[in-house]
Amino acid sequence: MTASAAELLASAPCGVFSVDVGSGRILYANAAAARITTRSRDALVGTRVSDLFSSEFAPVLADLLVAASDSELPIGATAQLTGGPGSASATAVSVLANSLRAKSGAMTVTVTLHNETERRVREKDLVDARRNAEAAQDDAEAALDRSQDALGEAEEARKLAEAERTQVQILASTLQRTLLPPILSAPTGMNVAAHYHPASIDEVGGDFYDVFPLDKDTWGFFLGDVSGKGAGAAAVTSLTRYTLRAAAVFDRNPVSVLENLNTVLHHEFHGDDPRFCTVVFGTITPRSNGASVHLASGGHPPAIRVTRDAAVDFVDTTGGQLVGALSEPQFVSSSVTLQPGDVIAFYTDGLTEAIVGPGRTRFDDDGSLESFVAEKGPTSAAKIVDDLTVLLASFGDGLQDDVALLAFDVPPVGTDAESVDE
Fold first, then answer.
1. Left, alpha or beta for 48 (phi > 0: left; psi -120 to 50: alpha)?
2. How does pLDDT run across 209-224, given as a tens digit for each residue?
3. How many helices (DSSP H) and strands (DSSP E) are in the chain?
4. Hey, which end of the chain has fewer CB within 10 Å, N or C?
5. Around 173, how many Cα atoms within 13 Å sit in the side-chain half-sphere?
6. Which of 272, 181, 279 is closest to 227 using CA atoms?
7. How many CB atoms lie within 10 A of CB 393?
């Protein structure tokens, strides 16, 4: 036996004896045999192998050794192994005997012992482990089924939510269109352009504008922003547009028109759901050499004027207060004369308050609107609206409110007027 084989035998998990057939004594025992028999290896060597087992197994053991010595195949049996000295316990074992003839001619039998209790424990552990694995697999399959069901339900919910959102968007878009004029009527000999840019397609905004004739010589116009969004803002917007048009028929003075609107809004929405708006209302009267513009502002950003020489300035309406918020607010009026080639543009504060930098820096915090318009040089109503529309698109998510744009121009001498409505 080589050294490596001896080491393997010594460390084998089953007990191994080498028994001399003639004397029936143990010639060799490995560590596992000592553990199973609860005796030391030294104590085992020289011991009669029959002394390890219960007395009723002695005849069987004798026959087993004789049979194994005459057989080329292992022969097995089960037996009760007695405990070591001072121990009254017995251990069930399985015995496997195999013959081996030494070079000297002596016959030995190798007896292998397996502790049945340990084997049964191992088998039980294996069975339990298998059952646990099968149960875990069943649980995993059930969880997978539940996950697939949940995924299916989530997908159905997503599709339903998407369909509902699409429906909301359609309704919002439809309602928004009803709040804006489908066609703008340009004052005689002038150009007009407008654009509405929604911050969200899911909600109805409160920005509005309109241009309409008051008589054959004068046109009225307004642009404003109602507080809030949704159906409530839409109701206020509709009422505001109607009131402005009606008020201008009776008294076209811009301040008087805003005062009438304030009376209506303050009366209708002064309770638990107060509503107000910023508005600029004005009249335009074309002249042979340009146009006269009279306007009043209620808390609205100032109009911007660009001359034919690309000079840019704002129409001063500082001090005008919100419409509908107070019972007797102050409104500020101003008058502007447009020469051929001049443009006047109006906008809502979604443009100037777009977030463009860290710390919620707004676009017009440092006068960027005036700089932007000045850089474009001489312009027209259509061009300034187009340029501002491109600017709005560049804000991306920084554009957090709807924006309405409205512009008029007096064409340069020798060009024709053309209305544009977006």
1. beta
2. 999 999 999 999 999 9
3. 10, 17
4. N
5. 7
6. 279
7. 10
Q: How is residue 113 written in tokens?
A: 């012992």
Res 70 pLDDT > 50: yes
Q: Report d(CA 178, CA 266) in Å as an integer.
A: 24
CA 170 to chain centre: 24
- pLDDT-wise least confident of 54-68, 100-114, 120-134, 334-348: 100-114
Q: Which stretch of 158-167, 327-336, 350-359 has the lowest confidence by average pLDDT?
A: 158-167
CB 376 within 8 A of CB 387: yes
Enter the pTM of the model: 0.61
Sheet holding 304-306, edge to edge: 191-197, 403-409, 343-347, 304-306, 312-314
| Number of alpha carbons in the 13 Å side-chain half-sphere of residue 264 | 18
- The answer to whether 186 and 192 have CB atoms below 8 angstroms apart is yes
